[in-house]
Design brief:
This is Delta(1)-pyrroline-2-carboxylate reductase family protein. By secondary structure, this protein is α/β, with parallel strands linked by helices. It is built from eleven helices and 16 strands. The longest helix is centred in the middle third of the chain and has 20 residues. The protein is globular, with a radius of gyration of 18 Å.
Amino acid sequence: MTQLLNADQTAARLPWRALVDEIARLLKDGSVEVPPRLVQALPGGGSLFVMPALDSRVAITKLITFTPANAGTGRPAIQGDVVVFDVATGQRRLVLDGPTVTARRTAAVSAFAAQRLAPDTQGPLLVVGAGVQGKAHLEAFAEVLNTREVVIASRGAASAQALALHAQSLGVQARVVQDANAAIADCSLTVTCTPASGVVLDALPRKDAFISAVGAFTPQMVELSPGLCQHFAAQGTVFVDTVDALHEAGDLLQAGLDVSRFATLADVVRQDIKKPAGPVLFKSCGWAGWDLAAARVATTQQFRTDRN
């Protein structure tokens, strides 16, 4: 019988460390296939995403809507499901909450990239944007990298204070700042988790900086200034999550950079690329392979539950 999981149940099936470890395994798995995702524009400015992926054991499709106009309404910007099938039998095994999968796998990818590439993983961590992704990244970095100090910058004072209180409940010291550009000099780790409707960072980073930019996933979206992206390309190192960044990484594309010359996470794992000297920019655009990694973890957790 198919299990239909709500947001809390989906999160419980996706422990942070297990998800990060599965991402590493998936990048070495030659059976993984990820067709291009279909993005259908909707009236009113939203988009419908259809994202399939499969390996030798599991096939998934993520079906979600992205509705930027929902910002500030109490309705989530991302809604939908991830449907998980057994390849051998064709049976539908799980239906996972799509926004929860998106939040957790995105944050886990950032944490994995920081593990492998950040010059200094000690922090503090600067979180720009205090929404769903900001919360997920805080939790992932606290669990996976043992981050113990966070600085929060957000346009919404109430959401920033709520995230600071959540950080404190996890045993993480937290403070709220007004200016992310002023705070970046004090933080070795930064994640930008905004709606990507405009530049939120343009200050030059410190030499041991790691930035994971996750908000912009279309050519029109942007969080980092062109000058900041160009600085990383000239004075540091830029990595992207997948080759799809060639046509999705708005920050890099608007900076006029040749995205094809930047290594992907698959390159990092398969070529055993070591941490580079100087500042590192990791540009994340999203990929159904990350959702497949989440589905693999969730089905493993289901198997363990069924056995007990």
